[in-house]
Design brief:
Mean pLDDT: 83
Radius of gyration: 31 Å
Strand content: 15-25%
Helix content: 40-55%
Structural class: alpha+beta
Distance between the termini: 66 Å
Number of helices: 16
Length: about 550
C-alpha cells in the first residue's frame, strides 16, 4: 500500500514538473516573439518612427519598412525568427503591410498569454483562432469594394496610401503614378491575374532629386558608358545590338603558364598574331551589321582590351562594357537579342534592335546610356531613380517597390478596403457579435481574437500623437452605428470616412496579414518544448 502511494506521488510530481516546463517554454516563446513585435510597433502608419540600422559592413540604412528592419537585425531565438519569416512572407505575397503583420502577431500573442493564464488549453486556443480567422476573411470580402483596372486614378490612390508611411511620402504624387504606369504597361488589363515584377527594372543614379525619377520604355545603364578612348560613336540610330559573353581580347591558355621571349622578332610575331586574332573577331562582328556591342563582365580576364576597342571604333561600332551577368536576361527580353557565348555563333539572327542608343546627360557631369525604341515595349520597362544621397535613393527604391507590389495585389485580387484601421475595427466589432453565437470556450477565444485586432487603431493613434483610448472608443461607436468605412484620418487627426478621403488599400494586404499572423501564432501555441540536437557528421570512405 505504501509503495503504491509513493508511486502515485512520484507520478504527480513528474506530471507537475512536465506541465511547469511546458508553461515555461510557451512563456519564453511568447516573450521572445513579443519583443520583436514591440520593436517595429512604433514604425506603423504614416506618422510612424524610422529606424537607423548600421550593418556589419559599416553601411547605414534609414527605413520604417518592417521587412527591411527585421531582415537587417540578427535574431537568435527560433520563435522570434518565425515573426521575421512572416514579415518576409508578407513582403513576397503582398509587398505592403509588413509591419502590420508583425504588430498583429504580437497582439495575438498577448491574447494567448491572457487565455493561457485562464487555464484554457493551447489546442483549444489554436482551434478558436482558426474559427475567428475564417469568419474574419468572410467579413473582409463583404467590406471589400470591387475596382476596374482601367480606372487609373483608383490604382494611383492605392499606391499613394502605401507611400504615405514612407520617408519619401512627400513625393508620392510623382512615384505613385509612375508605379501604376510601370505595371500597367507590361500587362493586359482585361486578362491579367498576376504580374512578374522582374520585368520592371529599378536603376539608381546618384544626383538630382526624387522629382527627376522617370519611367523609360527601354534600357538604362547608369554606370556603363560607351567607350570613348578610341573615338567610338556615342549615339547610334537604328541600332543592331549584339550581346556577347565571350572576351574580345588576346586568348590565354587554360592552365597558368608563362611564355619566355628572348628577342624582339618573337615579340613582334606574338603581337601581330594577337592583332590578327582580334581583327578577325571584329570583322566577323561587323559583317553581321552589328553597330552596338554589349559586353558581359568577365571574372577570368579582361573582357575587352584597348586594341579591340580601337578596331571596333574604326568599324563605327559603339561598345558598352561590363554588363552584369544578372542583367543579361532582362536585356535579352527587352531588345530581342540572344546572348552569344562564342564568336563562331555570332550571326545577324541573334542581334537585338532599337531605334536609338545614346549617352545622355542627367544633370551636371553625370551621364547615363539609354536604349529606347525597343521592339518588346509591352514586356519590360525601366525606372531610373534619382536622389540627393545614397540613403534617400535606397529608401526611394524600397518605397517604389512597395507601391509596385500594391498595384500587383490589385491585379491578383481586384478589391479594395478603407484604410486608417477601419477594417480592423469593423472586424473586431463583427467578430464580437459572432462570438455570442458560439458556445463554450470558443466564445471566449473568438472575443479575445477580436479584441486583439484593436491594436492596429490604437497603435496608429498613438504613433500620430493622438489620444488612443479616446480615438478607439469613438471608432467603435461609429462602427456599431454602421459606419464601416470610418477610420482614423491621420493628417487631420480626426475620425472620418477614409474611403471617401481616398485612404484605401488592397484587400489582399489585409487578407494576407490576417492569415499569416494567425498561422504563425497557432504554430507557436503548439510548441511545448525546445530540444537541441547534436549533429553527427559521418565521413564516407569514398575519396572526393
Amino acid at each position: 500500500q505504501n509503495n503504491r502511494m509513493a508511486e502515485k506521488s512520484n507520478n504527480k510530481k513528474y506530471a507537475g514538473a512536465t506541465n511547469e516546463r511546458e508553461k515555461d517554454t510557451r512563456q519564453n516563446n511568447i516573450l521572445a516573439a513579443k519583443t520583436v513585435a514591440d520593436m517595429v510597433r512604433t514604425s506603423l502608419g504614416p506618422r510612424g518612427m524610422d529606424k537607423m540600422i548600421q550593418t556589419g559592413k559599416g553601411e547605414t540604412l534609414i527605413t520604417n519598412d518592417g521587412a527591411t528592419i527585421l531582415k537587417q537585425i540578427e535574431v537568435v531565438h527560433p520563435t522570434a525568427k518565425m515573426l521575421v519569416e512572416i514579415s518576409k512572407a508578407q513582403d513576397i505575397e503582398a509587398g505592403d503591410g509588413t509591419t502590420t503583420v508583425v504588430v498583429l502577431a504580437g497582439a495575438l500573442l498577448n491574447a494567448c498569454q491572457f487565455l493561457l493564464e485562464k487555464g484554457i488549453h493551447p489546442t483549444a486556443i489554436s482551434d478558436g483562432f482558426q474559427i475567428a480567422l475564417e469568419k474574419g476573411l468572410d467579413i473582409v470580402d463583404e467590406i471589400g469594394v470591387k475596382i476596374d483596372l482601367n480606372d487609373r486614378d483608383q490604382l494611383i490612390k492605392n499606391a499613394m496610401t502605401s507611400l504615405a508611411s514612407k520617408v519619401v511620402s512627400q513625393h508620392s504624387d510623382i512615384l505613385a503614378p509612375l508605379a501604376v504606369d510601370a505595371v500597367t504597361k507590361i500587362i493586359d488589363k482585361n486578362t491579367a491575374t498576376n504580374v512578374d515584377l522582374r520585368n520592371i527594372k529599378i536603376v539608381k543614379k546618384l544626383g538630382g532629386t526624387i522629382d527627376d525619377t522617370e519611367l523609360i520604355e527601354g534600357l538604362v545603364f547608369p554606370d556603363n558608358r560607351p567607350a570613348h578612348s578610341a573615338g567610338g560613336p556615342t549615339r547610334v540610330q537604328n541600332a543592331k545590338i549584339g550581346l556577347i559573353q565571350f572576351c574580345l581580347s588576346a586568348p590565354k591558355t587554360d592552365m597558368e603558364q608563362s611564355v619566355e621571349v628572348h628577342d624582339y622578332t618573337t615579340m613582334d610575331r606574338i603581337i601581330k598574331q594577337e592583332r590578327r586574332i582580334i581583327l578577325g573577331m571584329v570583322k566577323k562582328i561587323a559583317e553581321t551589321g552589328c553597330n552596338v556591342l554589349l559586353i558581359q563582365k568577365s571574372i577570368l580576364r579582361e573582357a575587352v582590351n584597348e586594341l579591340s576597342i580601337h578596331f571596333l571604333a574604326k568599324k563605327n561600332i559603339m561598345v558598352i562594357r561590363d554588363i552584369e551577368r544578372e542583367d543579361v536576361e532582362f536585356i535579352s527580353k527587352t531588345i530581342g537579342a540572344t546572348p552569344i557565348a562564342h564568336i563562331d555563333n555570332f550571326t545577324a539572327a541573334k542581334l537585338g534592335t532599337a531605334k536609338v542608343v545614346e549617352e545622355v546627360s542627367v544633370g551636371g557631369e553625370k551621364k547615363v546610356t539609354k536604349i529606347t525604341g525597343v521592339p518588346n515595349q509591352n514586356q519590360t520597362v525601366t525606372i531610373l531613380m534619382r536622389g540627393t544621397n545614397q540613403l534617400v535613393i535606397d529608401e526611394a527604391e524600397r518605397s517604389i517597390h512597395d507601391a509596385l507590389c500594391v498595384v500587383r495585389c490589385l491585379i491578383k485580387n481586384k478589391s479594395v478596403l478603407p484604410g486608417g484601421s477601419a477594417v480592423e475595427v469593423e472586424l473586431a466589432q463583427k467578430l464580437n457579435i459572432y462570438s455570442r453565437e458560439l458556445i463554450g470556450v470558443q466564445q471566449y477565444i473568438v472575443k479575445a481574437y477580436a479584441d486583439a485586432l484593436e491594436v492596429i487603431p490604437y497603435t496608429l493613434a498613438e504613433n500620430a500623437g493622438l489620444n488612443p483610448i479616446q480615438i478607439v472608443t469613438e471608432l467603435k461607436n461609429w462602427h456599431i452605428k454602421g459606419g464601416k468605412f470610418m477610420g482614423i484620418d491621420i493628417k487631420k487627426g480626426v475620425i472620418g470616412d477614409t474611403y471617401s478621403e481616398n485612404v484605401i488599400q488592397p484587400s489582399l494586404v489585409t487578407i494576407s496579414a490576417l492569415t499569416l499572423a494567425t498561422e504563425c501564432i497557432r504554430m507557436i501555441l503548439k510548441i511545448d518544448d525546445i530540444l537541441l540536437s547534436r549533429q553527427i557528421i559521418k565521413y564516407s570512405n569514398e575519396v572526393f
